Amino acid sequence: MGDGRVAALAGVAAVASAPGYRAFADALAGANVRVAALEAKPDRWGRLVAWVRRDSSDAPGESLAERALAAGLALYRPDASAKPCRDRLLAAEQAARAARRGLWGEAGSAPLDAGDTKAILAAEKGLVVVEGRVLTIGEQRGRLYLNFGPRRTTDFTIVISKRKLALFETARVPLRQLAGRRLRARGLVDRGFGPVMEIVSPDALELLDSAPASVEANR
Length: 219
Hints:
By secondary structure, this protein is an alpha+beta fold. It has helices at residues 21-28, 64-70, 86-99, 117-122, 165-170; strands at residues 6-9, 12-14, 33-37, 47-54, 62-63, 74-76, 112-113, 128-133, 136-140, 143-147, 157-161, 182-187, 189-190, 196-198, 205-207.
């Protein structure tokens, strides 16, 4: 920004390797924008998390977050600050995915298949989107596990601390009944003990079907 501060688009994880990203960024240089900060203090990287809108003759008040998502230049990031606009941001991302724009048109692009462990482990560091069917549910040492394969140490697994379960219950996400359900998850992947994604918010999960397949949960 003009005063030297850096704004980060709320609810967006930019993918700099996406086709068209550099042209998009260059086109914004010197643009007239309106910044509405969502947090009083900068984030850990010194950025001001904000809604940013561009004023132009062809698109007055255009949301840069929605534009980046719709162009396939970013992924929706489930920030708490972005929750009020979650549906709109996901819709913009879905439009790009359906049209295979930007990162969605690349070979091996997101969403990654939960069964393709090698692809998940090889994905760029940062936010990752994974889709698959939950095989079993497990609970151990204060954590709940959504297992996408028979071996937790080698297959993709989602981990949720039991301290966070109330958030999912409030959002009506039936974690213990997800065996057999197909879902989309987004978050960071820990590669130390197989591909593990820890989820702390229900906004990071999307149910993709209406009924479970015939698999059973591990109680």
